[in-house]
Amino acid sequence: MAKWLSTISKDIPLHLSRYFPNYKVQDIPPTPKETLYKAREEAQKYLDYVYLGNV
To answer: In Å, how far are 5, 29, 40, 45, 48 from 19, measured between CA atoms?
Structure first.
């Protein structure tokens, strides 16, 4: 997705949020922090503004 977005503009911000179990979907574990860090690292190869949420 980051590679595709960069073809439009490297200045498009990308926000990556961590999943947490809540309400009716509690049987799936939260997204590991390491997964978000790896996704940010990959996205930063293409975009200038990559942000993490809920880490």
So the answer is: 22, 8, 15, 23, 23
